[in-house]
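pinging the channel bc i need a second pair of eyes. not urgent but kinda urgent?? the chain im working w is below, pasted from the shared doc
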Amino acid sequence: MEVHRFDDQLMKIVITTDNHKLHVFSAYALQTGCSDHVKDEFWMMLDHKTADILQGEPIIVMGDLNGHIGKQKDGHRADGGHGYGKRNEDGERILDYTDVHDLVIVNSFFTKRDSQLKTFYSGLTSSQIDFVLVRRRDFLLITDAKVVPYETVATQHHPVICTMRIKPPKQRHDNQTGPAWTKWWRWKEKKDKSS
């Protein structure tokens, strides 16, 4: 329905279905070497754009969030405890954002091999910096999330695949088209019984 490009790091696509709007954010957080001020600007913009969405409408935030959430939950409800590596300061930014908006980090809730968790490779170094986030109440629609280890989307990045159920609209049987069917075989049954 709509595409909003806010800057080089953030855009939103709005998809409409019969019942509601789905807001899909594509995000690219700034790298670890950038200043805290520049990083804060990105996270504040994402925070404001997320807050603008009505509570009843689903949100999906996905992309390279350039932070390590690690394996330890440490009391964060957004973290399922199945991450990779150790948490860093930028991972804390991700978790703070999810706490404020009641989001969960989908690819931390499924038990996977390390190769299905690592999203970024540089030489001998590997990490998990690409994530999919959804509202907590929509998490039950997610059936799986994993990395495809032998495919690359961009240099050094492996894609994260998230499978989500979307309920199809219920079929309505009250709006039939065409003439009513005459069940001729029943006429024969009635005739045989009356004879």
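so The beta strands are 2-7, 10-16, 21-28, 59-64, 103-105, 120-122, 125-127, 130-135, 142-147, 160-164. and DSSP finds three helices and ten strands in the chain. — does that match what u expected or am i reading it wrong
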